[in-house]
Design a protein that fits this description.
The structure is a homodimer of 754-residue chains. Helices cover 28% and strands 26% of the residues of chain A. By secondary structure, chain A is an alpha+beta fold. The first copy, chain A, folds into 3 domains: 12-124 and 199-251 and 255-286, Aldehyde oxidase/xanthine dehydrogenase, a/b hammerhead (Aldehyde Oxidoreductase, domain 3, Alpha-Beta Complex); 293-448 and 600-753, Aldehyde oxidase/xanthine dehydrogenase, molybdopterin binding domain (Aldehyde Oxidoreductase, domain 4, 2-Layer Sandwich); 453-469 and 484-497 and 509-589, Aldehyde Oxidoreductase, domain 4 (2-Layer Sandwich). In chain A, the strands form 8 sheets. In chain A, strands 3-7-1-14-11-12-13-22 form an 8-stranded mixed beta sheet, sandwiched between helices. Chain A has a 5-stranded mixed beta sheet with strand order 9-17-16-15-10. In chain A, strands 18-27-28-31 form a 4-stranded mixed beta sheet, with helices on both faces. In chain A, α7 (223-234) crosses α8 (261-268), α14 (478-490) runs parallel beside α15 and α15 (518-545) crosses α16.
Chain lengths: 754, 754
């Protein structure tokens, strides 16, 4: 069995030897380097742009400004087309591209940026959610408020005037009435900071435009969506837009949909066919995308026995200057506000606001860490109010397999109690070490994995195999997983299989890499392609043996019939009558019910159990133990699955204890890796365990379901709950910095005194 | 109907604007330029090679010699693996690679070549066929004479000792006996010179070797065969050998099989992953491959009434220093010695000799011009001997459709009389203008087109189409023809279809581009893929309309059901539930009888009718009129078919009147475009007509058969026959230069006097 084995990563040697090429590593002749002039102001009208001095600088090939966009539709966006390639009328956040210079070298381009004169007329800054929703607030998108110039690309739902980018409202049962039956109402407000996704590789792209069409090398996680958007913007058929994605150095949502690609291609229109490269600095990428910050109020009515009667939740999210993926993020918060607990009456109102900050888009478990931080902290508060052990309370209230979390959605497809138990088993829950506190959290998310993937598998005349699948290898190990599926289905060793990066001219369509969909959806397409290929191989072998297909067995790279055997290479050669030819397997995945008749395809489920200690003089939390549980259905590659879940957990440790992208009235104050603190290996707990739950209950190949996001959602509430367990102090704002913890301890101590 | 229309070439704009990129145009960063040190001697032992001074030259990165081949199998060859990447023990022709230098620039590499000291021990030169077959002749391949170190790759048949590279013997009936019944025996010996294929683009390659395997950009016409050979030589699975072929500037057989590719890859092994480029000069390419020269003796016994009783033919061919495609060329001569005439008894002996000259390989109609020059001149001589008009004689003796030329082979699939009549119809055969002579020739060749091709067609979500087919666009118009087939089958306009060059990692297998097989074989694979795609499209449309497939019709880019219609883009989007996904059609061609149960798949048939005048003082022939006839079954694109046939005819005009690659005891004397005279446009006749015979009798799509080679075979005998018609002088050696014609006229005149 290749599937289920912790095989080596197929990209491992490339990566540890440095042979792996990322977009910025690719070598091009005639390459131009581009640099981007970015707005220094959060909100301003552009009065004029004078590029004459920059354009005259020797070595400058072209300068791109709003004046170059007149012959195309300059607006793009995956939910709303509300953003232009470069700022047109106004700038809306610090870092917004205003002009781009392409030059013979990066230094020349840099120098040229300083020669561009932009005259701005400053406008009042909409600094945050409060400012955005204030009466008479300045509008970021005037036209948005009006006739709706912006096209709702994704059909994600309501859009509104004012500074509201998107609103989602959801009601289940009759919450207003039901609250009357509650014995107690717990009402809390939580906040979650802006977080930068921090992929090691910043956004990178090389674009070229020739008679053949557009060619774009990009760090994009979504090459096929980029293709469609570029085709739309620049007026080409899809068949003439080639998007090539080599290795990608992490994405975590930061490379979803469209980031610098439209800009790169627009610049390439002006370079006379020469390729132009944009490789951002980390600071530039921190000013390109981030996770939504949020303010979440939850009111839950309960009975004395713990029964959840009704809930009302108001979630205000800061989407920044442009919609990016905000509407989808907002939509996904709903299920997390309902929570994986028995609850009949609920009312949820989610509003995403435009503010003069960097646009917020996707990040690992979109909307998840924000809402599960709030909900799972809140569940602890309820348990505490009721005087019930929070673990005990969860075990009582959790939904069972087959019960429905959200009407119309797929029923719960996991054993939540099993996972929760697994998260606390290695802890001494009832009697933690003196000075330590324990906490648990349960994360259940509806994956938005769309079931659309196509795969091809080519069996060549020497028996080696090329897998063509459009999943982007962003470090998650997708090429290994997909190769394992091929190896398993065709019964060949992994080293006979080659899979390279996507090239949309030759790699079949995949909707996207994200939403934990690759193993489940693309994996199913690959498995279907392998089955199709195997069928052809059997038919060809039967022809070669002059027998019927049911006498043929396939194993270890050979087709056998009784005591005779042929290698696959021999089967192919006999089929084509020469040492040549190839057999091609084809697999389609689409929403035809093959992966389930309802959505989500699967619930992405994970739990965390934390044990912490605290320096009461400084407020510094030390994570002593952490257990992360991921319900993966089936681990195709257990070591990779554990690695993914551990990675997600460590990333979540960032927003739990350290990370927050700070603004001062529209000016970013820590958009660099010195001031913005991400977790280090020394921050990891001494005991750090990953537990995989494998009940084979996923819709993917071999019972797999998506994973790799759940680890990020539970750690903040598990740690917060452990802090409460240890101190009785509930901190409702992240990150749990020493200062914040200390102040809250002092505040509650003084409140207790008064 | 797109098929049958003279649509614009899909590569036309690229080519006339200069946007089309050929291998030498491709831009690479870190590129190294390679230059090749070539043997100045025709036959010599290599005593020593000292590269130390060259390697020490600043800018030289690596030097390749025989010392670098110890860890690989350095021998390659498509028929016999008799040739090493660079010379090992001996050099066998002037121009043979001995060492290669890769340097930062071509100039440095050139300079370094001069610093390499090679000590040779000269060996006696085997200058030509006579020298090769002489008693006690020095051997070119000592081991060949012994245990047979060389592997007969293609299974082409007998190999022999001495300087014999290959021998083919064929007997039909009982010729020795039958000659006794002849009333007359006509015995003639003809010669055909060495000819250079002269593609405008010389051989070019860029090779790179990295952890991912081998990547080769090449002007090769046979990328999949190159892949297999490189995989074999350098020990990689096919899936790790990427051969990329952009536009190719003509091939005519000169780029068949393996030319500079093994050398380029061997060099790339030494450059630490940096790409290395070899772009040959025209002179270097003239010392890389050529057409076989030949000496052909034909004895035919006839009855007074013209009946052909028996024939004996001995064909001696000069294969040069290495086998290249010599054995296959020899094999193909058989059918042309039989000829497309009624003949029951025949004995043919064909021997290909090794000589110390540039290796002879494929050229347009391999073995065709040599043998048809002899046979069709000979047929005229027979007619003359019998006192029968040569046209009349042919019309009487030609095989009819369904009659068998060669036992076991496919029966004649064309109306040869119709074609012959068409070739002379525009001439005034019986009463040519005073001072003019007329001649006709019939060319019938067994195409060796192998029926192995695979094609994929991707219908993208916007309704645009990508065709993946491994036919190399060498200028013959293959991309246009294959795109027309897709357009026809899918009922879409040509500009919705994109087809690029081959990349073996993503383009499915095609046996080769050559032998006039692309329209017939790859065209059928493409048509099958389109049919497969159309079937899927109809099924998807039926699903979308919620009806059965038989109510769906496909036309003009839409699927219709009664009065409702959906564009293909809509069908794909509905199938996948989003504006994405794609449908992929797949087509296999293989020797399963789909293209016929016998070989050849088709007879490639063409005729030529010539009218000439002569300057009797100088012997200069002027071609006044020429009619070339090609029996194409069905012209997918008539203008392209005519262009191909005209091109072949003009190329044949070269060996008719001008071209001959001359050697002086192993030293080439005119391997350059100043001294080697190819036809100019001013050499074309005033009246130059191309006639296509379209009887729909080919096995290819829409009744097409292969074409593009026949034009080259008939012109020499048609002109030679016209000269005879005009002067009564038979010249049996090509080219028909003024001096040769004049001398022969003088000689025969004097012979007549004596």
């Amino acid at each position: 069995m290749t599937v289920g084995a912790s095989t080596h990563r197929v990209d491992g040697i490339d990566k540890v030897t440095g042979a792996a090429k990322f977009t910025g590593d690719l070598a091009f002749a005639d390459l131009l380097e581009a640099r981007v002039l970015r707005s220094p102001l959060p909100h301003a009208k552009i009065i004029s742009i004078d590029t004459s001095k920059a354009a005259a600088l020797p070595g400058v090939i072209a300068v791109l400004t709003r004046d170059d966009l007149s012959d195309i539709d300059p607006y793009y966006g995956n939910c709303l087309r509300d953003r232009a390639v470069v700022a047109t009328d106004k700038v809306r956040f610090v870092g917004e591209p205003v002009a781009v210079v392409a030059a013979e070298s990066g230094l020349i381009a840099e120098q040229a940026l300083a020669l561009i004169d932009v005259e701005y007329q400053e406008l009042p800054c909409v600094a945050d959610i409060e400012a955005a929703r204030a009466e008479g607030a300045p509008l970021l998108h005037e036209s948005q408020a009006g006739a709706g110039e912006f096209h709702d690309v994704a059909g994600v739902g309501e859009t509104f005037g004012g500074n509201i980018c998107h609103r989602e409202r959801f009601t289940k049962g009759e919450p207003d009435k039901a609250f009357a039956d509650a014995d107690d109402i717990i009402d809390e407000t939580f906040t979650f900071p802006m977080i930068y996704q921090y992929a090691m590789e910043p956004h990178s792209a090389v674009a070229r435009m020739t008679a053949d069409g557009i060619t774009l090398w990009s760090s994009s996680a979504h090459p096929f969506l980029v293709r469609a958007e570029l085709a739309h913007m620049f007026g080409y058929p899809h068949a003439k837009v080639e998007v090539i994605v080599p290795y990608v150095g992490g994405a975590y949502g930061s490379k979803s949909y469209f980031k610098i690609e439209p800009l790169a291609v627009a610049m390439a229109r002006k370079t006379g066919g020469r390729p132009v490269r944009i490789v951002q600095s980390v600071t530039e990428s921190m000013l390109t995308t981030r996770r939504h910050s949020a303010r979440l109020r939850i009111r839950t009515g309960v009975k004395h026995d713990g029964t959840l009667i009704a809930r009302e939740a108001e979630v205000l999210m800061d989407t920044g200057a442009y919609a990016d993926n905000g509407p989808r993020v907002a939509k996904r918060v709903i299920s997390r506000m309902l929570g994986p607990y028995k609850l009949d009456h609920c009312k949820i109102d989610i509003v995403a606001f435009y503010t003069n900050t960097v646009p917020a888009g996707s990040m690992r478990s979109i909307g998840g860490p924000q809402s599960i931080w709030a909900l799972e902290s809140h569940m602890d508060s309820i348990a505490s109010t009721l005087g019930i052990d929070p673990l005990e309370y969860r075990m009582r209230q959790l939904l069972k397999r087959g019960e429905v979390l959200k009407p119309g959605a797929t029923a719960i497809d996991a054993d939540l109690r099993q996972g929760t138990q697994a998260a606390v088993a290695p802890l001494n829950w009832r009697a933690a070490k003196r000075g330590n506190g324990v906490g648990v959290a349960v994360g259940v998310s509806d994956s938005e994995a769309m079931p659309v993937s196509v795969a091809l598998i080519r069996l060549l005349a020497d028996g080696s195999v090329i897998l063509l699948a459009g999943t982007t290898e962003v470090g998650q190990g997708a090429r290994t997983i997909l190769s394992q599926i091929v190896a398993q289905e065709l019964s060949i060793p992994m080293d006979r299989i080659a899979m390279r990066g996507t090239d949309t001219l030759t790699t079949p369509f995949d909707r996207s890499t994200g939403a934990s969909r690759s193993t489940t959806v693309m994996g199913s397409a690959v498995k279907a392609a392998a089955e199709d290929l195997r069928k052809q191989l059997i038919t060809a072998a039967a022809e070669a043996f002059n027998t019927s297909t049911n006498t043929i067995t396939i194993s270890k790279g050979e087709a056998r019939c009784a005591d005779k055997s042929l290698t696959y290479a021999q089967v192919v050669s006999k089929f084509f009558g020469m040492p040549g030819g190839e057999l091609i397997g084809r697999g389609y995945m689409r929403p035809d019910g093959a992966l389930g008749k309802t959505f989500p395809l699967f619930w992405e489920t994970g739990m965390g159990g934390a044990e912490i200690s605290l320096d009461r003089e400084t407020g510094a939390i030390k994570l002593e133990k952490y257990i992360t549980v991921a319900d993966v259905g089936k681990a195709i590659n257990p070591v990779q699955a554990e690695g993914q879940d551990e990675g997600a957990t460590i990333q979540g440790l960032g927003n739990t204890l350290f990370e927050s992208l700070e603004y001062d009235n529209g000016q970013p104050v820590n958009a660099n890796l010195v001031d913005y603190r991400v977790p280090r290996f020394t921050d990891l707990p001494e005991q750090f365990e990953s537990v995989l739950i494998e009940n084979g209950d996923g819709p993917g190949p071999y019972g797999a379901k998506g994973m790799g996001e759940s680890g990020i959602v539970s750690i903040a509430p598990a740690v917060g709950n452990a802090l409460f367990n240890l101190t009785g102090v509930r901190v409702r704002d992240l990150p749990l910095t020493p200062e914040r913890v200390w102040r809250e301890m002092v505040r509650q101590k003084e409140k207790g005194k008064s």
